[in-house]
Amino acid sequence: MRKTPSGISPVIALDRKAETPLYRQVYDAYRTAIVEGRLRSGERVPSTRVLAIELGISRIPILNAYAQLLAEGYFESRVGAGTIVSRSLPDQVIRSQSRVRRPIGVSPRPRPLSLRTSSLLPLETGPWQRGWGAFGVSQVAFEQFPFAIWNGLVARHSRNMQAQALDYGSPMGSKDLREAVASYLRTARAVRCEADQIMIVSGSQQGLEITARGLLDPGSRVWMEEPGYRFARSVFVSNGCEIIPVPVDDEGLRVADGIRQCRKARVALVSPSHQYPLGATMSASRRLQLLEWAENSASWVIEDDYDSEYRYESLPIASLQGLDTNSRVIYIGTFSKVLFPSLRLGYIVIPADLVDHFVAIRLAMDLAPGGFFQRVLADFIQEGHFSRHIRRMRLLYNERRNVLLECIRRELGGVIEVTGAQAGMHLSVLIRGISDRQLALRAAKQNLWLVPLSSSYLGKVREQGFILGFGSSAAKDIPKAVCRLQALLESK
Q1: CATH 3.30.428.10 fits 388-490, yes or no
Q2: CATH for the 22-99 domain, from 3.40.250.10, 1.10.10.10, 3.90.1150.10, 1.10.150.530
Q3: Which stretch of DSSP H or E encloses residue 68?
Q4: N or C: lower Cβ tally within 10 Å for the chain?
Q5: Is 60 exceeded by the pLDDT of residue 121?
Q6: pLDDT at position 98, please?
Q7: How many helices (H) and strands (E) does the chain have?
Q8: Integer Cα distance of 272 and 289 in angstroms
Q9: Helix axes 22-35, 59-71, angle to 10 degrees
Q10: The whole model's pTM is what?
Q11: Which helix (H) or strand (E) holds 55?
């Protein structure tokens, strides 16, 4: 009687100490050998009993591996004929893969990408965007956060989790949080709103994205402050919009310049309470002029109110939205600056007649925001912890700001001009005769995180300098950081 051949097996080096189970190691060895062309279509493989003896292991892992390979179509089996490599595999693909060794995931065929994605590639990401320490922008005093209170609220909601909390929530967000935010905005920011107009989002960046999709079409023209917030710029570019850079001065956006450049722009994005990065507060006359333009041109205004809670030389400035009697302003805020960035919670105040439109966009993006931390934050606000935290942090940031200003005046007074120190967690310094990007790269090697002012310009760079954050720097550490900045400038 003719003896049936035992079949071909790839080299299988089993590691009994590995976390990967034995059946998976056998499966991976066969699958890799087939895909790379070392085992060909129609070739016989050993029986499970023979392979178990060869490998010195139980037959059970071999049975499991073969079952998986059969289920996925790499093997086929016939009664009396044993198990072979599937004859239905595309041989030409296997042969081409075995001839050409390429990095994983790279194909020789065209790899078309969205023009929207390609348009974002030139966006500069210097080391100052990643650094932690002196002058870091958008960094808060994490060590001052009321961890015990927050952890207690998290524990409370974890213990009392109910089945309903595991389901999708409303695309607008938690009703309790929206009511808490609406109450806060009406009293602290003079915003005209009800809870039904508030959509909870994953930070102001998502708020901008949803708003851009709701208001703009490819080719729509958008006024942006020049210099301005570059990550907002990426939202408009990715949506195919044409950006019209409108200069700012010490009264904020120069509305008349915007009208001269493009009267029929669809949207104007402004940060009127504390312009980023130069820090101007938009004057009352400019606010009224902007609202008049929006109404007469059938345009929209997006108000980015990113850190208005922190004002040091006067009471907080009321929102632009509160002056709007024609529902032309979409108001966007965030908890990233007043609590912590990884919370990823912000909000949009939407004109009432646009709510359904924004909900449709939200459903197309991510259905609804996560619910757990919305419930925690709602309690944090409603129980008064939020207001107390803001009051404490306003005093702390004011102290740090004063120390930074005094050190700059003492060490660098004849070299630089300070702007935007009246509010927020950063100020800007204007410096003549330097390349701020080159100095910022050098500074990063010394753990000084200087954001170059020139990176905030879309058109011609009119000012060189740096955006200096002071939120995360202890007052005692600021003098040394300023001295290091002085040494850097002297060595330019």
Answers
A1: no
A2: 1.10.10.10
A3: helix 59-71
A4: N
A5: no
A6: 46
A7: 16, 15
A8: 13
A9: 40
A10: 0.81
A11: helix 48-55
